[in-house]
Every structure is written in C-alpha cells, then in structure tokens.
What does this fold into?
Amino acid sequence: MQHMPLSELSYHLTRDPLSYRTDVVRYYPEHVAEFTTSVIQILLSRSFGMHPEMRMVNFNPKYNSSQAFLRAFMRLRTKNLIPATQAVDIAFKLYRCRDKQVRKTLRHFLVSDIKRMNKCQKQTKANAVYVPAIQFFLGKSKALDEMETSSDSESDDEETKIKQLRLGHRVGVKTKNRQKRLERSIKHVNKEKERKMKKRTELTNFHALNMLHDPQTFAEKLFRKLERCSDRFEIRLLILDLISRLIGLNKLVLLNFYPFIQRFLRPQQRDVTHLLLFSAQASHDQVPPDVSS
It folds into this structure.
C-alpha cells in the first residue's frame, strides 16, 4: 500500500477538510469510489442553489472554501480517479449553471484535460466529447428521458391513489370530518401531481440553443466539422440535426448545407425521414428557393 510522505501530510493538514480528503483519498483505494460518488452527487444535486464560494473552482485564496466541491471534482479527475467519459457527462450537466465563471472554468478544464491525455496517447473516446455536447444543445438529457418515460406510470399511480381514497371513504360511517379528510387527501395528491408537472416543464423548457452568443459562427464551424467527419452515420445525423435547428431557429444563411444534405436524400437511404425533417427545420424565408429545393 502506498503511503503519503510526512512532508505532504503536514502540508495538507493546514488546509480545508475537503481539499485534504481530495488529495489523500488516492492513498486509500478502498475509499475512492465512495468519496468520488459523494462529491459528484453533492455537486449535481446542490450546485444550482449553492453559494458561488461553495462550488467555485477559482484557486484564489479568497475562494478557499471548505466546501469547494467543483474544485474537488476537477482534482479527482486530474488524478484519474474519475473516468474521462463520466467527467464529460458531469461537466455538461453542470454547464446549465447560471454562474458564468463556473461555465468558463468547466470549458477550460475539459479542453485542458483532453490535451493532457493526448500528450500520453491518442484518446479517441475522449475526443468524442462533441457527442454529449451536441445532445446537450439538442436538449436530450438522461433526466428528461427518464422523466418522460415515467410520466405516464406516475399519472396512473396518482389516479389509483385517488380511487383508493374514494373507495375507502365508502366504508364506515360518513361524517363531515371524514369528508374533509378525503378532500384534503385528494388535494394533496393533486398538488403533488402539479409539482411534478411543473418540474418536468421547467426541464423541457431549457434550451441551450437560445443562449448562444454567435449562432452563425457556431453553425459554420459545425458544418466544417461535418464535412470532414468520418464518424458513424448516427453521429453525423446528430450534427445535421443541430445545424438544421440552428439555421431554422436563428434564420441563418448557410447555403452549402442544403446541397450537402441532398446528397443523402435517396429512397434506399436509411433514416431518410430524419433527413427530410432536418431539411424542413433548416428552411426559412431568408433561404433562396433554388438552394433549398
């Protein structure tokens, strides 16, 4: 078992507890998984309502908070205690935070981390970071998918609860107090249903495409990447989807996009319906008819 040098131990003991645990946990392999999971869960569950100093990653001493969970996350990743693909997924979830400094630091950290790995060896899997990035901009999140698939079953459960309450009320003597309790219980179930629906609406209303500073430049860079892309067809479809949404939402002019997508519009082409949808998404009144037709 590897032990921490005494000089390093004395240095860490003068620092805050979270930083200390982050730096020494690698010497205790049996605790690594539990500690990293705790940091990630706290960061994801509380970061949006967390005070900036508690999640801040700035290494300035004035931000040396004992609860700097984002800084701890970055250190754990740098020490390879968090897999690269998991770190990318977490970073894009955190990118929804409205704290500009957090978003800027996350972007810099991701790029630096991939460069660091590429100095040692070619990391094809890590370089596919743009796949979760595209899914992020398209609003395709795991939380949303899970919420959509479970919404029907939750609705059925709530209806079942109300039916059970009404059936239970039929048994026994009917009094005004029992009737009031029934009404309160039904009201509570309906409120819970409204709360879940509100949460789902807030999640689905979030769309990163509406927050872009320069969508034209972004779309042009994506298209150049698409032209050189040699990834599998499913990934190219994702890029086409994102570009077409950018064009349609912002009424961009990207004339080379239309002949490019027309190359794939053949009867035998798989997912041709998706390609037709992308063509429709990218159509607006600023596009010359002879280009988009």
In short: Residues 12 and 20 are 5 Å apart (CA to CA). The radius of gyration is 26 Å.
